[in-house]
Amino acid sequence: MRSICGIWKSSSLLAALLAALVVLSTPAAAAIIVQGNARADAETIRSYFTGSSPEEVEKGLEALRDSGRFATVSATRKGNDVIVRVTEGNQINRVVIEGNSKVKTENLQPELRTRAHGAFSQQVAEADVARLMEIYRRAGRAAAKVSYRTVELPNGRIDVVFTVAEGDKTGVKEIRFVGNNVYSNRRLVGLMETTEMNLLSFLKTSDVYDPDRIASDLELVRRFYLKNGYADFRVVSSDAQFDPALGGYVITIVVEEGPQYHVSSVDVESHLPDIDGAALNGLLRLSPGDVYNGDAVEKSVEALTREAAKKGYAFTQARPRGERNPAAQTVSIHFVLDEGPRVYIERINIHGNTRTRDYVIRREFDLGEGDAYNRVLIDRAERRLNGLGYFKKVKITNEPGSAPDRVVLNVDVEDQPTGNFGVSGGYSTNQGFIAEVSVSESNFMGRGQAVRLSVQAGQIARGVNFSFTEPYFLDQRISAGFDVFARRQDAYSYSIYSSTSVGGTIRFGVPITDELSFSPRYSLYQTTISIPNSISKPYNDCTVPTAITPGPSPFFPYDQGYPNLQVNCLSNGEASLAIKESEGTITTSSIGYSLNYATIDNFMNPHNGWMVNFSQDAAGLGGYSRYLRTTGDMRYFHEVPYLDDVVGIARLQGGNLTPFGGYTPRIQDNFNLGPSLVRGFAPGGIGPRDSNLFTTWNARAGNSLGGTDYVGGSLEVQFPLWGVPKDLGLRGALFADAGSLWNFQGRTNYSNNLPTIPGVTCLAAYTPEAGFGQGTCVVPASNGFRIRSSVGASILWNSPMGPIRFDYAVVTSKANSDITQNFRFSGGTNF
């Protein structure tokens, strides 16, 4: 027992000795000692440090610097302790930005880390200078200079003043593509919204350097290559360097094009019950033998996803798989339908829309909160939002929701100006000088509605127009709107009467597919026809029955047996009886529709695709007129192979007017065409004319009557003007036109206006029976189908504010009564 107690005592003593040794060998805990602080609390400074290791100390120092509360921050070690020394800068009373006018203070102030009531730090202030200069650089003002100064105040306080010298906008002087062999630099630059500086830079802003716009342009280039079969295309790099010698940026874009692929096969494999993949092949936008098209692949994925959702598979994922054969330059496309993970959208958050209302953004989604998550439909919504033109940028991201099967969508947008005030002027050979003032807003009060008011005034034509469009009528993807107008066109060299129209249209737009839309409408308007009768325009001085008026007639054929007759009421240009009959005011009430089909690659500068329009309007729902008007216009664009930026255009157009209910068409109902059908002819220079006036010796003096049928075709090739800088926006064109206007169906016999002459039903002008006046007949010359044709050349100018076109045509076939006009100029620009 005694031995056991001894052992226990010895063990206890040994344990006590060991414990003492452990305590003595353990270093004391490191302390954070703060020095130099006067206003800042030491404990607050210590809170920036989570430990005393070198990494933790460095992290704490960085956090103190970022706080902006201290002029200097440093740390040293003394034994186990860390001594943190701070120097408190002067307290900032206020921060002022001066010299800025192009970028608003409220946009600059939030970017500064130098803030009122904080401690001044030279390091932070210098970083703010660099940040402000970067903001100006991104706004296209690389020449901007920023500096700062401090103004001392009592009690150790200061004002910090940032001074900005904004300078001029810095433009893009040159855009260079490297590695492009298939498409030229001119062609690729033409795809971009960013343009190069030129003599017209003062009229535009698209040549101002903007990194965000450059990034968007690179995506346009990438999609262009993918759409044209270059599936391996990639942008290797993009670099922007400011060149002081050139006074602008030089953008260098390095690309790898790769080969052009054709589709060898395409099919659908479905892993979904009750859905046969082969039955979905009709939804695909690609066929074997086609050039690979990235856009067609995306649209096929969307179509397959929507079809599966209709059949109850809301979580379907349609994935395209391409197997390339570089040797054969073909790709096999295999679409696979799988049941995706069951993830639901918990919430859609929208940020950054300071003007546009939330519902305008949400309605672009084909899904909502609580619906199945579908990446294809989300990407489609992002493209729609970008296409609205309301936002400078759009980005949709995901974050986890409150449960594993929930996801939150974050939609980040940045509003941009959507209003426009325009003052434009122009000249055309058939309307003379014309000016227009317009105010438009495409996102009215942030509701996504479009309004436009315009006023035109010119030598011949003037008017006012107002339009309103609601793109989502009754919360459906159907547009609804109305137009009201008042227009007047005076008589001029190609029209012997004046016309005034007042009315409006109610219209709708229904998308059927991405390419096809249906647009019904109802129109109600009044048209007034008047014939001037003045010294300068004596077009209505013959009365019915006609009378001989004094004065010599230089046009009358004295050698035909009437040497002493005076018939001035005809010789100075008289209106046809068909036009006189149309004098006065009539009301037209019509219902109609249009079908529009478009697959072109670019609405402003198309190179490939179709544009087709078919319209019908039936007049007769009240009003005076009774007819069915049908028109069609089809255009096909195709870039000529192996000829860069050369585009061939084929056009076919036609129309018909069919009266019903015993109605006789009047002058204002007919098609009255000229250069819009065949270039080289004057307005109203083609088709039936009243040849009863000066029939034998000057048929062209007869008034244009118009016709109820027309058809026309055109071939045109547009090309760059080699040797002319692209940035001037000039292109050339060669064309050949052919067409015909025929079938005047108006009244031709007005004998009931004169006393009855036995055996005579129609009195020709200049006859004794007609009193050597206007007579009682309308004799339509060139009333049958006859082809007119022309060939010519054009100069097209894509001016900063609108297209201008110069056409010169040589007529190759015509009727005797036609009126030609070789040169035509149309268009205008803002000033």
Count of folded domains: 6
Q: What is the CATH level 1 assignment of the largest domain? A: Mainly Beta
CATH homologous superfamily descriptor of the largest domain: membrane protein fhac: a member of the omp85/tpsb transporter family
Q: If classified by CATH, what would the architecture of the largest domain be?
A: Beta Barrel
Strand order of the largest sheet: 16-17-18-19-20-21-22-23-24-25-26-28-29-31-32-33
Task: State Rg.
Answer: 39 Å
Tally of strands:
33
What is the beta-strand fraction?
35-45%
Cα end-to-end separation: 118 Å
Q: Write the CATH fold name of the largest domain.
A: Porin
Mean pLDDT: 83
Structural class: alpha+beta
Approximate shape: elongated
- Count of runs of 4 or more consecutive helical residues: 12
Overview in brief:
The chain has 831 residues and is α+β, with helices and mostly antiparallel strands.
What would you say this structure looks like, in words?
- The protein has 831 residues and is of the alpha+beta class.
- It folds into six domains: 32-87, membrane protein fhac (Ubiquitin-like (UB roll), Roll), CATH 3.10.20.310; 91-165, Ubiquitin-like (UB roll), CATH 3.10.20.310; 171-256, Roll (Ubiquitin-like (UB roll)); 262-339, Ubiquitin-like (UB roll), CATH 3.10.20; 344-415, Roll (Ubiquitin-like (UB roll)); 490-830, Beta Barrel (Porin), CATH 2.40.160.50.
- Helix content is 16%, strand content 39%.
- It is built from twelve helices and 33 strands.
- The strands form seven sheets. It has a 16-stranded antiparallel barrel.
- Strand 21 (498-511) and strand 22 form a beta hairpin.
- The longest helix is centred in the first third of the chain and has 24 residues, at 2-25.
- It is elongated and about 130 Å long.
- Residues 17-27, 544-567 and 695-700 have low confidence and may be disordered.
